[in-house]
Design a protein that fits this description.
Order of helices and strands: HEEEEHEHEHHEEH
Number of domains: 1
Distance between the termini: 49 Å
Radius of gyration: 18 Å
CATH topology: Glutaredoxin
Number of helices: 6
Structural class: alpha/beta
Strand order of the largest sheet: 1-8-7-4-5-6
Number of strands: 8
Largest sheet: 6 strands, mixed
Length: 197
C-alpha cells in the first residue's frame, strides 16, 4: 500500500511538472481581431543591417514576430520559419525575427555574426531585425506593443524564453501569442495563413 501511494505521488508530481512545462513553453492564446489602442502600423525598428523599417509597409499583410537566439534549444525553429517564409512569404505574409539576448544570454553575437549564423546554418532570407530587449526597462517599442493590453488592445503577455511567436492579421490586430515550444508549422499558424479557423 505504501509503495502504491509513493508511486501515485511521484506520478502526480511528474504530471504537474509536465503541465508547468507546457504552460511555460507550449501555451497558445488566440484572440478575436480587435482594434488596438496604439496602431501597429505606427511602430518601427531597425533591420539587422541598421536600416529603418517602418511598420506602415506591413499594411494589408499578415505578420509573424518572433524573438530569436543562436544558442538556444529552440534555435532549429529557424528552419521551420524559413520554410514558412518560402511557402507563404511575399505580398501577403512577412516574418520579422528579433534577435534577443535576454534569456540565458543565448544571443551574444554582433549583427554581422547573427546574420552570418542565420544564413550559413539555416539559409534565412526572411527579415531579421536589430537585436532588441523584450523585457525589463529597455523593452523595445515593438515588444511594448505586443506585451501590453493598453497598446495592443487584447491582452498582456509575458515572453518567457526565445522563439515566442506573435501573429498579427492583415489589419494590424494581434490575434495570437504562441510560446516557444509551439513550432512554426503548428496547425494554428497554418490555419491563420490559410484563413481557416
Amino acid at each position: 500500500m505504501k509503495t502504491y501511494i509513493i508511486i501515485t505521488l511521484v506520478a502526480a508530481i511528474f504530471i504537474a511538472l509536465g503541465f508547468s512545462a507546457w504552460n511555460l513553453y507550449g501555451g497558445v492564446n488566440t484572440y478575436t481581431p480587435t482594434v488596438s489602442h496604439t496602431s501597429f502600423y505606427d511602430l518601427s525598428c531597425n533591420t539587422l543591417e541598421g536600416e529603418t523599417f517602418d511598420f506602415e509597409s506591413l499594411i494589408g499583410k499578415k505578420v509573424l514576430i518572433v524573438n530569436t537566439a543562436s544558442e538556444c534549444g529552440f534555435t532549429p525553429q529557424y528552419e521551420g520559419l524559413q520554410k514558412l517564409h518560402e511557402q507563404y512569404g511575399g505580398d501577403g505574409f512577412v516574418i520579422l525575427g528579433f534577435p534577443c539576448n535576454d534569456f540565458g544570454k543565448q544571443e551574444s553575437g554582433t549583427s554581422e555574426e547573427i546574420g552570418a549564423f542565420c544564413s550559413k546554418n539555416f539559409g534565412v532570407t526572411f527579415q531579421m531585425m536589430e537585436k532588441v530587449s523584450v523585457k525589463g526597462s529597455n523593452t523595445h517599442s515593438v515588444y511594448k506593443w505586443l506585451l501590453n493590453e493598453s497598446e495592443n488592445g487584447v491582452s498582456n503577455h509575458n515572453v518567457r524564453w526565445n522563439f515566442h511567436k506573435f501573429l498579427i492579421d492583415e489589419n494590424g490586430a494581434l490575434v495570437a501569442s504562441l510560446r516557444s515550444g509551439v513550432n512554426p508549422d503548428d496547425k494554428r499558424v497554418i490555419n491563420f495563413l490559410n484563413n481557416e479557423n
